[in-house]
Amino acid sequence: MTVRDEARRYPRHGETVAADGTGRRRFLGYVLAAPTLTVAAQLGEAVLAPAPAAAAANPARVPSLPGPSEIYDLNDMLTHAALPTAGLITIRVEADGTASFALPRAEVGQGITTSTAMLIAEELDLPLERVRVTLADARPELLFNQMTGASNTTISTFTPVRVAAAVARGRLLRAAALELGELLGALTAKAGAVVSTVTGRSIGYGELAAKAAADTDTPVGVALKKPSEFKVIGTSRRRIDALAAVTGRKTFTMDVQVPDALPTMVCRPPTINGTVRSVDNLGEVRAMPGITDVVRISTGVAVRGRTFGQCIDAVRALRVTWGPGTADGESDATVQRKLRAAELPLVVPPLPLLTKAVDVRFTFGFSSNSALETNCAIADVRPDSAEIWASLKTPIVAQEQIALELGLPPTAVTVHVTEGGGSFGRKLFFDAAREAAEASQAMGKPVKLMWHRTDDFRQGRTHPMSTSRVRATYTLGEVLTYELRHTSVATDFGHGLGEIITGAAAQLPVGDLTFSETIFQLTQQSPYHFGVTTQLLGETDKGFNTGSMRGIYSPNVRCAQELVVDELARRTGKDAYEFRRRHLKDERARAVLAKVAEVGGWGRSLPSGVAQGIALHPEYHAFVAVLAEIDCRPATTGRKIHDAYTGPRVTKVVCAVDVGLAVNPRGLEAQMAGGIVDGIALALTSGLHLSDGHFLEGSWDNYFYTRQWNTPPELEIVVMPPTSDRPGGAGELAVPAAMAAVACAYGRATGTMPTHFPVNHAEPPAFEPLPTTPPIPASPVDGLDRAF
Hints:
Layout: E1 2-5, E2 26-32, E3 37-42, H1 68-71, H2 74-82, E4 90-93, E5 99-103, H3 112-124, E6 131-135, H4 153-180, E7 187-190, E8 193-196, E9 202-204, H5 205-212, E10 218-223, H6 242-246, E11 262-267, E12 275-279, H7 282-286, E13 291-297, E14 300-305, H8 308-317, E15 320-323, H9 332-342, E16 356-364, E17 367-368, E18 376-381, E19 386-390, H10 395-406, E20 413-417, H11 431-443, E21 447-450, H12 453-459, E22 462-463, E23 466-475, E24 478-489, H13 500-505, H14 512-523, E25 532-540, H15 554-571, H16 576-583, H17 587-600, E26 610-619, E27 622-631, H18 634-637, E28 649-658, H19 665-684, E29 690-691, E30 694-695, E31 714-719, H20 734-750, E32 756-757
Parallel strand pairs: 1-31, 5-6, 11-21, 16-32, 19-20, 24-25, 28-31
Antiparallel strand pairs: 2-3, 2-10, 3-4, 4-5, 7-8, 8-9, 11-14, 12-15, 13-14, 16-23, 17-22, 18-19, 18-21, 23-24, 26-27, 27-28, 29-30
Helix pairs in contact: 3-4, 4-5, 10-11, 15-20, 19-20
């Protein structure tokens, strides 16, 4: 992989300076009394006002009004919702000179513990290796400020964390002035110590920590560093947890040791959300070796044993009579018919004598947002209390909902957030934690509950099947209208904004579509001047376990629009890149598009069956463009690999990304690479097949995520120079653009616009489906035969 980091120097423009010269970077903080120095951030003013939009260099003849998300998006809403409790986050300077911070977000591999440590190291003038970032337990007082989603962590914590660190630095400097008997102006903070510029004397942070603490809340003024002064922020850093990860020392949920918490698994129904009617051999299974408990819970039958292997044997041995599920008899075909019937009407009619139209419908299959780490949780429920351990992106609502179901007050339920091995939106829900708590209460014993991989695929959360109907009218080379009607199996937003009130509102019969439409409008934007533009959401089918997955609606909506843009360019006789460039609204969008066209050699001569695709995606004050090359020649699509789908191969990807200010360019590059691979999978190979109320896929062997033989051998990521003094969203940014670019390349290579995704979905499955009863398959014994 090649990386171009063009984000090394920071402009000094864009700062509003007040009469006293401090500008927006001046805030108030306060100090809390503690054995060591503990400081919290308290904002004196809103600092995340939207930056003024750049004027288009080549305005289109038929401009479009800004959409809702261009004015105020989901990320803005989450950031502003977090502001009232921003003063409750604290940084501690310890007696050993290190700094500690409990991050109220979930680290699931995206690297936020590293970027947060960088913010602290920058403002505290402390070496990065001396900053300790852990994950906070559920803190209900934070309200909306403990939800991890919508690429919001770095945006919403960027200023509060820096303020807290800067307050700590100020208190340490004042304590050093008293200790050394020198003027405050003669002291400077450097590498974890306070140094006198006059006498050269120094004193470490550890010696000052207790002296810098205050007995009362004391307002102090701080000035945050200017971008021109950054020494850590904006530099490429290795992840602070990299060594622990590669040496197996990271502590995930299954690594947590809780006394007497034994392995526990659940026997699940053969169809989605089926119910237990009876267990026909309960005594027999309870007598199996190692099994300590077998109980019915709301989602199936839970078994607890000495080892997970014994639990698997017990699950497979259970004879359960199952009641119907919520999707019995449903298949891809039946759901597609319901989506078609629920489609909202288009408004602009075709006018053949005056205009021409591109009118097309795209279908996107169910897809799995299972992470490499299966769903798991530990629970220890007592008569008057409960303790939970799990990787959770909404720990507050998990605490509140579990307390409600256990019949306990929320204050009696402690929820510990562990690091997670991936999420993709899955960990916005706490299904495993809820099951673990229910099983522990029923058994009266601690449990370490783990889902089997097959459970994840067949009863876990999925990205819903959807369709996008698009009609774009044009005349004389100009686009006059663009209409999109996105119809989806309902996305479950039962996690709300991270607490139980909005979570409940999202599930009300009259509130669910309203909630979903709000999320849709606050996330979906068209980057193009296409005249009168409308994008609306319709929903149907609430019988599935769904959830947000890396961009919620964006991958499908963006893919649909970019394919239509290619078709508009073709019909008007324009180059696809130039057509996009001419119609883009924003200069930042135009810059990333131009960069990938330049670096990727847009328009270069390629063999028949090989083609380029180009796409752009705006999201959460950031922009990304992707150029992809795909090989659809028979020699490539006809490759044979045992139990695999090979199909076409993306041979080259160039990505240019502008997130305003990249806190850690190396982490940003990794996020883009991961998103690109996700986009390739969604476009070409990874989808779930629904048949008779269950999904055929039962493992990663069946679900064809991008494999090594389908990843691009050429991958180049360009981090654009900073365009702001604040970061934009990045976590999900590359997925929609990559999916769209690959789809456009596929269409150009085959000569036919693809309209069903993944493109292999209509082909016969390239695997033998696992049985649904028993729900867990037998352990494989042919591993060596399948090694490559």
